C-alpha cells in the first residue's frame, strides 16, 4: 500500500544536482520528505517563486562561481547535473567518498 501524499525523493544522497534557475550546483547530503525549515525562511522567498511545501526538500553542499555554502532546495527547482565537472566544496570529503566510476557514496560513520 502506498501513500500518495508522500512523494518518493527523485534524488538520493550523493546525487549531483544543479538549480533550475540560479547558477549553482551541489551534492545532496540529506533529504526531507516535505518542507522542514522555518516559516520565516519560506516567506523570504518571493511569492511568485515560492515552492510548494508538500514535496521533497534537499540539503546540498552547494557552490557557485564565488563561494561554497549549504543550500536548502525544493525538488521542483533541481535537475540532475550531467556536466561531469568536479565539485570543489570543502565539506564533500567529510561526508562522501567518490568511487572509481565517479559516484559519490556516504562515508561509513563509526559511533563515538
UniProtKB/TrEMBL annotation:
Q: Which residues form the Hemimethylated DNA-binding domain?
A: 8-107
Q: Which SUPFAM superfamilies match?
A: YccV-like (SSF141255)
Highest taxon listed in the record's lineage: Bacteria
Q: Which InterPro entries match?
A: Hemimethylated_DNA-bd_dom, Hemimethylated_DNA-bd_sf
GO terms of molecular function = DNA binding
Pfam families documented for this protein: YccV-like (PF08755)
Protein keywords: Stress response
What protein name applies here? Answer: Heat shock protein HspQ
Query: Taxonomy-wise, where does this protein's organism fall, top ranks first?
Result: Bacteria, Pseudomonadati, Pseudomonadota, Alphaproteobacteria, Hyphomicrobiales
Gene name for this UniProt entry: hspQ
